[in-house]
Amino acid sequence: MSRALATATARATARVVLATLLIAIAVLLAAPHAQGAMMIPRGTPNSHEPSGMAPPGPAALSGYHLSYVNDFNSPGVPAGWYLYSGHPGGITTTSFSPRHVVFAQGLLRIKTYQNRAFANQWTTGGLCQCGQPLTYGAFFVRSRITAGSVNSVELLWPYRNASWPPEVDFNENLGYTILTSATTHWGVVNHFEATRIRINMLKWHTWGVIWTPTYLLYVVDGHPWHEFAVSGEVPTIPMTLDFESRAQCPSTFECPAGPSDMLIDWVAEYQR
Questions:
Q1: Looking at residue 239, which CATH number applies to its domain?
Q2: Do 189 and 93 share a structural domain?
Q3: Contact, 168 vs 208, CB < 8 A?
Q4: Cα 71 to Cα 265: distance, rounded to the nearest angstrom
Q5: Backbone φ and ψ of 13, nearest 5°
Q6: How many C-beta atoms surround the C-beta of residue 78 within 10 A?
Q7: pLDDT tens for residues 20-33?
Q8: Mean pLDDT in the chain?
Q9: pTM for this prediction
Q10: Residue 253 DSSP label
Q11: Is the N or the C terminus of the chain less surrounded, counting Cβ atoms within 10 Å?
C-alpha cells in the first residue's frame, strides 16, 4: 500500500470512528432516563432471603417513594390479591387452579403439574393484585423459574378488565430457560412492540418496569434493557400487577417434561 493510500485509509477510518462516537453520544443524550440517570433498585443483599436479596428500601428509587412491598412471609393469599381459575386464553386442554398458587417458606409459588382433578391436564395458576390498581409507577419482582416449557409472565393488566389493550408484559419467558421477552400492547391488531433478552431464567433476577406518562422502561437486576416511548401509545389507564404460568400444551407449547414452579420472593412498588 502506498503512503498516500495508507494516509487516506487512516483518515477514512478516523472519520468512521468519530461518526460512530458522535452517534453513540447522541443516543445517550436522547434517552437520559434509560441510560442510568436514575439509580434502579435490585434489592438488598440478605442471606436469610430465599433469593439472597431482600426488598429494596423506601428511598431506593430516586424521585419515588415505596408504596407497597410484600415479602410473602405469611401463609394464605395476601389482602388485595385474587387467584385465577378457568382456562388460560380459553384453551380447554389446560387449566388454572387456585390450588396451584402456594405461599410457603417466604415464597410465592405458582406450580405446574398434571392434576388428576382436571383429567390429568397440565394445570397451572395465576393471581392479580386487583385490589391495588395504579396509574404510573415502578414495579419490581424478584423471581426465577425451575424448568422450561411453561410460559411464565409478570405483567400489568387493565384494572377490572376495563379494556384491552393496553398490556405490559415485562418478563415473559415464552417457555424458555435461556431468554425472556418484554412486550407492550397498545392496539388490537398487530399494534405491539416486543423485544427479547438472553438470560438464565433458572437463576434469581429482579425484574421491573418503570411506567411514566411518556415511556415504559424495562429493567433487570438494576439495569435498563428496553424502552418503549411511542408518543401517545404509553398506557394511561389504571392497571394491576399480575403473575401467571401457562402450560398451553399441546396446542401452543411443547408439554413439560415434568413439574415446575415459578418462584417469587418479593414485590416492591413505587410511586412518584
A1: 2.60.120.200
A2: yes
A3: no
A4: 6
A5: -60, -40
A6: 14
A7: 333 232 333 334 34
A8: 87
A9: 0.85
A10: S
A11: N
Per the CB < 8 A criterion, the answer to whether 139 and 242 are in contact is: no
pLDDT tens digits for range 227-258: 999 989 999 999 999 999 999 788 777 788 89
Q: Where are the beta strands (DSSP E) in 97-158?
A: 101-104, 107-115, 121-124, 126-128, 137-145, 151-158
Buried b (16+ CB within 10 A) or exposed e, 13-35: eeeeeeeeeeeeeeeeeeeeebe
Distance CA 157, CA 163 (A): 9
What's the number of domains the chain is made of?
Answer: 2
State yes or no: pLDDT of 190 exceeds 70: no
Beta-bridge partner residues of 193: 184
Give residue 251's pLDDT: 75
Q: Is residue 173's pLDDT more than 80?
A: yes
- Cell numbers 436469610 correspond to 48
DSSP 47: T
The three cell numbers of residue 31 are 434517552
The amino acid that residue 251 corresponds to is S
Between 176 and 21, whose confidence is greater? 176
> How many whole angstroms separate alpha carbon 211 and alpha carbon 33?
12
Residue 20 domain boundaries = 1-30
β-pair partners for 102: 109
The answer on 39 and 23 residing in a single domain is no
Contact 151, 253 (CB under 8 A): yes
